[in-house]
Amino acid sequence: MNKLLFMHIVNRLSNEVDFFRQKRDSLGRLGLSTLQKCTAAIRVLAYGTAADAVDEYLRLGPKAVLFAQHQEAVRKDVERAFGVLQARFAIVKNPALFWDKVKIGKIMRACIILHNMIVEDERDGYSQFDLSDFQHGEDNGSSHVDLTYSTDIPTNIANMMGVRTRLRDRQMHEQVKGDLVEHVWRRFGGDENNQ
């Protein structure tokens, strides 16, 4: 949903439902904000998770809250973009465990370029292109194909399983997430007093 609609929901809930209002605890500290409570409730509804699955989100410190806000802001766009690409190109739907990052990057760039060209063509209607616009430098116009590109599947299943294990390693996940939290905080966070 867009931000305007979300903020409308937050305002209505904070005005009409006591649970969603920010309150102070017995020590006078402010509790969870209306925004945090609404975000957690909508996450439960959207992802179908148990209510206690958002406890970690609600306990986050300011750095992690900022990271979660930025992550959620782009997650929807990324999911929508992949959905469009998966609908148009079957290769994007298939598992990519056997490919390295370079090959996956080339495939994704090719699909994105083709998708954008198709959208532009559909938007502008059919038009003729001058092929000289697409030639760079002193290209002789030949259609050289890079035969070094290979889609061979690795024969060593142990190597593939090792890569899969590293990708699913919890400690590695937490380290990468921590690095991303710090990066977002340095880029978008407040001054030293907010830490």
Q: What's the number of helices?
A: 8
| Backbone shape | extended
Protein structure class: mainly alpha
Q: Tell me, rounded to a whole number, the average pLDDT.
A: 75
Helix content: 55-70%
Assembly form of the protein? single chain
- Count of structural domains: 2
The gyration radius over C-alpha positions equals: 24 Å
Protein name: DDE Tnp4 domain-containing protein
Pfam families: Plant_tran
InterPro entries: Harbinger_derived_prot (IPR006912)
Organism: Brassica oleracea var. oleracea
Q: How does this structure look, described?
A:
By secondary structure, this protein is mainly alpha-helical. It has two domains: 1-59, no CATH class; 60-125 and 152-195, no CATH class. 60% of the residues lie in helices and 0% in strands. It contains eight helices and no strands. Helix 4 crosses helix 8 (170-188). The protein starts with a helix and ends in a 7-residue tail after the last helix.
